Amino acid sequence: MTPKATARPGYDPADLLKLYIYGYLNRVRSSRRLEAETHRNIEVIWLLRHLKPDFKTIADFRRDNRTAFRQVFRELAQAKKLRLPSPPRAGQNPHKRSELIDGTASPLLERLP
After folding, report:
1. 56-81 burial string, b = 16+ CB within 10 Å, else e?
2. What ranges do the domains of the chain cover?
3. Nearest Cα residue to 17 out of 74, 62, 55
4. Which of these, 111, 53, 55, lies nearest to 82 by C-alpha position?
5. 106 three-class SS
6. What tens digit of pLDDT does each residue of 2-24 get?
7. Closest among 78, 105, 61 to 23, alpha carbons compared
């Protein structure tokens, strides 16, 4: 389907994908809830540069790109698995910390390659 000459330009698919990834990471699955987040959540407002797609646009984007979403979320799940801290091994101090450049502590730094 091609838009009419008088129609508004469509949303950039990258913006709608960012909205879906935000929803995936924050456990917001509903298109109506994602639409509400674009109006009230400052993180989403910044992420989408003040764009406010309606729930139908969000749902249609999901429906039209179903197979691409599966691949993106599979890769995202793999990336999350790589970043999760593992439980302490036998003989390892679970309270050992590493310091960041600014002086704050993070136990995750020990596990980064």
Report:
1. ebbbebbeeeeeebeeeeeeeeeeee
2. 13-88+95-111
3. 62
4. 111
5. strand
6. 767 777 888 999 999 999 999 98
7. 61
